[in-house]
Amino acid sequence: MTTTATQAPTATTARDTAASSPAEQRSEISRLPLARREDLPTALREQLDGLESQLGYLPNWAAASALAGEHAQHLNTLLLGLLGRKGALSQEDRDFLALVSSAANGCSYCRLNHIQSYGRAIHDHALATRIGLDDREVAELDERRRALADFARTVSLDVHALGDADIAGLRAQGLSSEQIIEALFVVIAFAAGNRLTVALNVLPDAQFFDA
C-alpha cells in the first residue's frame, strides 16, 4: 500500500513504489516494498479507503499486507469481520481473544493494537495493558475470561494439546457451540495476522503511543 495525499500526517510515511535495487527493497514500515494504491484491485483499494476513513489513518499492517492484492483483501475481510459488531460472542470477548492470541504469538504490533481496542471496549487501558503483557499475571480475571485466555493460548501455541476437557471447560462457563467455534476462528485468524505482521517486521503505528 502506498502512502498518498489522503493519509493522515501522523501516520508513518513509506516509499510509494517498489525499488529495483536490493538495498531499497525494505520500505520504511515493512521488510517488503509497499504497493501503490492506484495499482491495487478495486475492492482492496475501497476496503483500505474505508478503513482509513474510519480510523483517520491507514494502519501500517494494512499498508504492508496490501502488496498481496486480492489475498490481502480476503484476509482483511476475515479479520475485520471477526472484530465487527455482530457475532455469537460479544465484541468485547472477540477483542479479548485477539489480544491474548497476539500476546501468545509474540506479535508486538498486534499486541499494541489490541491493547488499544480492548482498552476502549472495557474502558480500562491499564487493565488491557496488563492483559497484553501477560494475562496469567492478572489475578482479577474471572473464570470465564481465564477459560477463554487459556483456550486462545493453547490454540496459538500447541493446538495438539487442546482436548475435550478444554471444550468442556468453555461449556462450563456458559459458552455455546456457536460461541466456541467463533472463538476458534478469532484465534486462528489472528494467528495468521500475527505471523504476517511479525514476518514483515511491520512498524507499529505512531497512534499506538498517543497519550
From TrEMBL:
Residues 25-34 have a biased composition (Basic and acidic residues). The keyword Oxidoreductase applies. SUPFAM superfamilies: AhpD-like. The keyword Cell cycle does not apply. GO terms for molecular function: peroxidase activity. InterPro entries: AhpD-like (IPR029032), Uncharacterised_peroxidase-rel (IPR010195). Coiled coil: none annotated. Keywords: Oxidoreductase, Peroxidase. It comes from Brachybacterium kimchii. Residues 1-19 have a biased composition (Low complexity). Residues 1-34 are annotated as: Disordered. PANTHER family: CARBOXYMUCONOLACTONE DECARBOXYLASE-LIKE DOMAIN-CONTAINING PROTEIN, SI:CH211-175M2.5. This is Peroxidase-related enzyme.
